[in-house]
Design brief:
3 helices, three-stranded mixed β-sheet, 6 strands, 136 residues, 21% helix, three-stranded antiparallel β-sheet, globular
């Protein structure tokens, strides 16, 4: 498995498609690596509706933002180990959960339209204080 890079006598773990929550279900080696990362991650509520997950400096990317609906802003989205770290954080009841936005308010573009299920895209002209971020 090519998920580790050695730089200046230090191993760096790269979170990519090889180190995901779904891969951990089929590979004991991946599960062991991710379990170590997840249990040591620092999770905090970020801007009310999000979680900020800070992995060890040896993890790339180190910082992840996970939404209240458990999607990471990185390319791995719901399969990101940061999402699992947030679930672990909530299971341990270490702190306050992020707020769920009021109905009809979107602090970020949803991944899919709640009505038709199509992929949603940012539309800046539709952004408002009352409805949140605009999307189509």
């Amino acid at each position: 498995m090519q998920t580790n890079m050695v730089t200046a006598n230090r191993t760096t773990v790269v979170l990519d498609r090889k180190l995901t929550a779904s891969q951990a279900r089929v590979s004991a080696n991946v599960k062991q690596i991710l379990t170590s990362l997840i249990t040591e991650a620092v999770v905090k509520v970020y801007h009310e509706y999000f979680y900020r997950v800070d992995f060890d400096p040896g993890v790339y990317p180190q910082l992840h933002i996970v939404s209240h609906d458990m999607y990471c802003t990185c390319s791995l989205e719901a399969d990101c180990p940061a999402v699992t770290a947030v679930k672990y954080y909530l299971q341990k009841e270490e702190g306050e959960p992020a707020k769920a936005p009021r109905p009809g308010y979107f602090p970020a573009v949803p991944h899919f339209c709640p009505v038709c299920g199509a992929k949603a895209y940012y539309e800046p002209r539709l952004t408002s204080r009352n409805r949140g971020v605009g999307w189509r």
